[in-house]
Amino acid sequence: MALISTHDKTFELQEGETLLEGLERTGHEVEYQCRSGYCGSCRVKILDGRVSYDDFPLAFVAPGEILPCCCRVNEDIKVDCRGRVSEPDLFDVGLFDEQE
Predict the structure, then answer these.
(1) How many Cα neighbours within 13 Å face the side chain of 80?
(2) Domain extent listing, the chain
(3) Which residues contact 11 (CB under 8 A, 6 or more apart)?
(4) 2, burial (CB in 10 Å: exposed 0-12, middle 13-18, buried 19+)
(5) Percent of the chain with pLDDT over 90
(6) Which parts of the sequence belong to the 2Fe-2S ferredoxin-type domain (predicted)?
(7) pLDDT band at 85 (very low <50, low <70, confident <90, very high)
(8) What average pLDDT does this structure show over 56-65?
(9) Which of the two residues, 56 and 42, has the higher pLDDT score?
(10) 20 burial class (0-12, 13-18, 19+ CB within 10 angstroms)?
(11) Which one, of 77, 82, 34, lies nearest residue 59 by Cα?
């Protein structure tokens, strides 16, 4: 399978997994809605390598951009994507405990 590189990680796509699913599995922040190439919400920049599409998506895709929900990754690629930033839960016990 293809190696996917982002700003934070390098990982291998699993058999039958879309790029969007792989990015989610590895903790990356990717917006999405339809998961089928109609809306374009998951659009990311591709920095190196190429992808293909079984059916070209209906959403607008500019040069240098891909839709990870429906593209086919046949070679190693690098995409402009970062890991999710975890923020503290405001209701977490101990978050506002007094410091000694």
Answers:
(1) 8
(2) 2-80
(3) 3, 4, 22, 25, 26
(4) middle
(5) 78
(6) 1-85
(7) confident
(8) 94
(9) 42
(10) buried
(11) 34
Residue type, 52: S
Q: What Å distances lie between residue 48 and 64, 76, 98, CA to CA?
A: 9, 8, 49
Q: Where is 3: in which H helix or E strand?
A: strand 3-5
The pTM for the full model equals 0.82
The single residue listed with the structure tokens 């839960």 is: 89
Can you read off the two tokens belonging to residue 63?
């040069």
Residue 45 has what pLDDT?
97
Q: What's residue 21's pLDDT?
A: 97
3-state secondary structure 36-75: CCCCCCCCEEEEECCEEECCCCCCCCCCCEECCCCEEECC
- In words, the CATH class of domain 2-80 is alpha beta
For the chain, what is the mean pLDDT?
A: 90
